[in-house]
């Protein structure tokens, strides 16, 4: 199964509370922090909602 490398590019401060919770749930804390997440439907749905804040790369 592929993994997704997710990097927080823009701060989640002053965003909607739902978006801040998604950022925190993914394990992103500061700008330029990076986490590995599994490539599944739940993760893709969360990433879609904060797409303007992150950069996503697929890692095999």
Provide a descriptive summary of the structure in words.
This protein is an alpha+beta fold. The protein has one domain (3-59): Ribosomal protein L30/L7 (Ribosomal Protein L30, Chain: A). 30% of the residues lie in helices and 28% in strands. The chain is built from 2 helices and 3 strands; from the N terminus they run βαβαβ. The protein has helices at residues 17-25, 41-49, and strands at 3-8, 34-38, 54-59. Strands 2-1-3 form a 3-stranded antiparallel beta sheet, with no helix packed on it. The chain starts with a strand and ends with a strand. The mean pLDDT is 97. It holds the Pfam family Ribosomal_L30.
Summarize the model shown.
This protein has helices spanning 17-25, 41-49; strands at 3-8, 34-38, 54-59. It is an alpha+beta fold and 60 residues long. Pfam families: Ribosomal_L30.
Topology:
Elements: E1 3-8, H1 17-25, E2 34-38, H2 41-49, E3 54-59
Number of domains: 1
Radius of gyration: 11 Å
Q: Label the structural class.
A: alpha+beta
Order of helices and strands: EHEHE
Spatial ordering of strands, largest sheet: 2-1-3
Shape: globular
- Helix coverage percent: 25-40%
Our count of helices gives 2
Tell me the span between the first and last alpha carbons. Answer: 8 Å
Level-2 CATH architecture = 2-Layer Sandwich
Per DSSP E runs of 2 or more residues, the count of β-strands stands at 3
Low-pLDDT ranges? none
Task: Identify the CATH class.
Answer: Alpha Beta
Strand proportion:
25-35%
Largest sheet: 3 strands, antiparallel
| CATH topology tier name | Ribosomal Protein L30, Chain: A
Task: Report the mean per-residue pLDDT as an integer.
Answer: 97
CATH homologous superfamily caption: Ribosomal protein L30/L7
């Amino acid at each position: 199964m592929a993994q997704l490398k997710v990097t927080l590019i823009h701060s989640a401060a002053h965003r909607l509370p739902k978006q801040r919770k998604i950022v925190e749930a993914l394990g992103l804390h500061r700008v330029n922090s990076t986490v590995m997440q599994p490539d599944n439907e739940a993760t893709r749905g969360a990433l879609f909602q904060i797409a303007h804040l992150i950069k996503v790369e697929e890692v095999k």
